[in-house]
Specification:
- By secondary structure, this protein is mostly helical.
- The chain has one domain.
- It has two helices and two strands.
- It has a two-stranded antiparallel ribbon.
- The radius of gyration is 20 Å and the shape is elongated.
- It starts with a helix and ends with a helix.
């Protein structure tokens, strides 16, 4: 019975931790640029180019959710 309780607690803790990690990580914006040749460039969100692009992308996502 103790093993079952310990296993259940371990499983619940793992699921709870994964959910908390996903929520914390999901709110961060970033800009990744993918090229035709398969290359990727990750631009920091504080860069001036990224700030403008992320603002437009956020606006487009909000408009799509409203529709």
């Amino acid at each position: 019975m103790k093993r079952l309780a310990a296993g259940t607690l371990l499983a619940l803790g793992t699921v709870g931790g994964a959910r908390a990690f996903r929520r914390r990580r999901g709110s961060r914006l970033r800009l990744d640029v993918y090229y035709d040749d398969g290359a990727m460039l990750s631009v920091p969100p504080t860069a001036p180019e990224a700030t403008a692009a992320l603002a437009r992308a956020t606006e487009a996502l909000r408009a799509a959710q409203a529709a």
